[in-house]
Amino acid sequence: MKAHLSEQVGSMLRVLAQNADLICEGIDGAVLPGDAKRNARIDALVTAGALRSQDQSSFTLNPRLRSFVEDRLGAFQAFRQLTRIDPSIRHVERLWLEMQTLRAERAEEDAQLLETEINVGLADISYDIERNLQVLHANISSEFGNVSSLKAKLRQNAFFLGEVRALTKSIDKLRELADKLLHDALLTGVQSVEVAVRRNVIVHLLSWAQQINDAQNTIAKRLFLAKKLQNRLGTLSRVSLWLRQRQGISSEREFDLDESFNQLLLRPLSFPRLSHVDVKDVEEPVQKALRNIVAELKPREATVEAGSTSPAAQVMAVEAEEPIQDVIEPHEESLLMLLERLSTPGQEVSLLAWKCGDRRLDDTHAEDWLLYAGSQLMGEKIKVSHVISHAQAEGLNEAFVDIVATS
């Protein structure tokens, strides 16, 4: 049976290799029929399962094959949803309980089959998590390059922030299942399951948690900075609209300005300056003018003063450059102070009250502060609770007015 299966796999791979150009067309879009030879090749791919008939005049690539190519090349579509591992976790847990029941009934052959399925299921979960991390890293490193507009980047950033939070909860469930399987496998002597749990889950948990935490912090920080940039662009557009509507105002007209007027809106006056020739300019007219000026200069008489040192004995003292220090934003500095306070057990802090009491957050909107600080505190494993507004209109989502952090 294994020999027959190997022969079928080899035949299928040969068909894919012989029709690689049609598969490339399926990656870009639909595959359209043509002459008799092309139609025969399309039929071969349909028989192998690589193409699916969309209608009578076009064919599409198998979604599983498309997903494999995207994972291999790192070319992911916009708003690519992360693979859910909760169903796989429940399935592995169900298989383990069923295998224990079969062993109690002395059905060793069926229990052995389920043991193999458990090992395969754990390997599939590990692969799905690695693929999810690959999707996150590809989007973060390219700054969501699969979309061009700023608003689309913001929406995709918020979308992946929710996906990362769901993945974090799934990792916690997987950790509980791995501890349970490892304990039960040691008690019942199922060595293969114990090895599979250690190899596919236990040794990767710390790395997965660290990568997910880094991705969550990066996405939350970029979302916070992007929202600030969007507010500044909105202010700039309103000022631009005000100036366009008042183009008839003469530039020489005088206005009485009070103390509340922002002086940054005034046009600065230029001061007189003397132009100098740029000796580094390589353009021919400039170089020619420099040569003419040098030709008119009188040669300098070489004089050697008493006690002067030779050029070879001169030493140039160069001051050591100061190291470049990282600039900490005001909201980051305030968050560090908040984390220092929450390091003491029994502390309960309202993020909105903290903002009102910190002068560094005067230029930060309350909504932006709650979004940024709440996600950062959850990334640090600090318990946060949302204060729900009871005066909101009826709807599907609950609006909150504050977040309370408890150490």
Topology, please?
Blueprint: H1 2-18, H2 20-28, H3 36-48, E1 51-55, E2 58-61, H4 63-73, H5 86-104, H6 108-141, H7 150-188, H8 191-245, H9 284-296, H10 330-342, E3 348-350, H11 351-357, H12 366-379, E4 383-388, E5 400-406
Helix pairs in contact: 5-6, 5-7, 6-8, 7-8, 8-12
Task: Describe the fold and architecture.
It is extended, with a radius of gyration of 34 Å. The chain folds into three domains: 69 residues; 167 residues; 77 residues. The chain contains twelve helices and five strands. The mean pLDDT is 79. The strands form two sheets. Strands 3-5-4 form a three-stranded antiparallel sheet. Strands 1-2 form a two-stranded antiparallel ribbon. With 407 residues, it is mainly alpha-helical.
Quick synopsis:
The protein is mostly helical and 407 residues long.
List the main descriptive attributes of the protein structure presented here.
mainly alpha; two-stranded antiparallel sheet; 60% helix; 6% strand
The count of β-strands is 5
Oligomer designation: single chain
Molecular shape: extended
Nearest-angstrom radius of gyration? 34 Å
Largest beta sheet: what is the strand line-up? Answer: 3-5-4
Count the DSSP helices. 12
Task: Give the count of structural domains.
Answer: 3
Biggest sheet record: 3 strands, antiparallel
Distance between the termini: 60 Å
Poorly predicted parts: none
- The assigned structural class equals mainly alpha
Provide the β-strand percentage band: 5-15%
